[in-house]
Amino acid sequence: MRAYGSLIGARFRTLLQYRAAAAAGAGTQ
Q1: How far is CA 3 from each of CA 10, 11, 12, 17, rounded to the nearest angstrom?
Q2: Cα–Cα distance for residue pair 23/3, rounded to 1 Å
Q3: Tens digits of per-residue pLDDT, 1-29?
Q4: Which residue range forms the structural domain that includes residue 21?
Q5: pTM of the model
């Protein structure tokens, strides 16, 4: 179950990074 939680955490972190990058891109445009 720990591996499952780690997978969810990695997916969540990736989504957070993607949103942050998108926000930064929108801000520079």
Answers
A1: 10, 12, 14, 21
A2: 30
A3: 688 889 999 999 999 999 999 988 887 76
A4: 1-29
A5: 0.57
